[in-house]
Write a structure and sequence with these properties.
This is Potassium transporter. The chain is α/β, with parallel strands linked by helices. It has helices at about 5-10, 25-35, 50-55, 70-80, 95-105, 120-125, 135-150, 180, 185-190, 225, and strands at about 20, 40-45, 65, 85-90, 110-115, 130-135, 155-160, 165-170, 190-195, 200-205, 215-220.
Length: about 230
């Protein structure tokens, strides 16, 4: 996450209960399904009538319309321009993705999230006004590579390119030792945020808390220091 992303998410209205999703491929469908299951109203569109019908049949959206999103008149008629947040999920068709993003931004939609399939695509989407760009395949690939090379890291949140918060399996070297004894800050330059216990996390654990093999710990710090952990 970078500062521009933080600014974007802070600008989102907390009382917004409606979203429009343009494109019903795998990514678009997953966004629709998740939002719908969370109780939000979702209007989805796609140029493919079959995908629109499937979304309605499977009840992953509130409403769905077949239309060509490169046509501003069609978007306006469907009411897309009235939404506070629109997700352009047409990542594999670059021209259509860029034109659609331009259409919704020129119409005054305040928050537009767009899917990119390459770095060049990302730059073009930002150039035409996308407020936030996502790389689902790239992010999944990075996560898989990290999991394969560091299987002891259960979860990771990148604060910036150099710092992260990670959930890791307690190293064998730490088994039976107290939080104070492992000297996480002095030896590794890391801060301990939480330790798992009975299926829950103990936040800011006491220095006398003993770590157990097979449990998890959450630490924050520089990536190069995280990589020095005996995991």
């Amino acid at each position: 996450m970078n500062l521009s992303s933080l600014k974007f998410f802070r600008s989102l209205r907390q009382d917004n209960h409606q979203f429009a999703v343009i494109g019903l491929g795998r990514f678009g469908r997953s966004v629709c399904s998740t939002l719908h299951n969370l109780g939000y109203q979702v209007l989805a569109t796609d140029v493919d009538e079959k995908l629109v019908s499937e979304a309605l049949t499977e009840e992953i959206v509130s409403h769905a319309v077949q239309l060509d999103s490169t046509e501003p008149a069609a978007l306006k008629e469907a009411g897309i321009f009235e939404f506070d947040t629109v997700i352009v999920a047409i990542g594999n068709y670059i021209q259509e993705s860029i034109i659609t993003t331009l259409n919704v931004k020129e119409a005054g939609v305040p928050h537009v999230v767009a899917k990119a399939s390459s770095e060049v695509h990302r730059k073009l989407l930002k150039r035409v006004g996308a407020d936030h760009v996502v790389f689902p395949e790239y992010e999944a690939g990075c996560a898989l590579a990290r999991t394969l090379t560091k299987p002891s890291i259960l979860d990771r949140f990148d604060l910036d390119p150099d710092h992260s918060i990670v959930e890791v399996i307690v190293p064998d070297e730490f088994h039976g030792k107290t939080v104070s004894e492992i000297q996480l800050r002095n030896r590794y330059g890391l801060n301990l945020l939480a330790v798992s216990q009975d299926g829950k996390f103990k936040i800011n654990p006491d220095t006398t808390k003993r770590l157990e093999r097979g449990s998890a710990m959450v630490v924050i710090g520089c990536n190069k220091d995280i990589n020095r952990l005996p995991i």
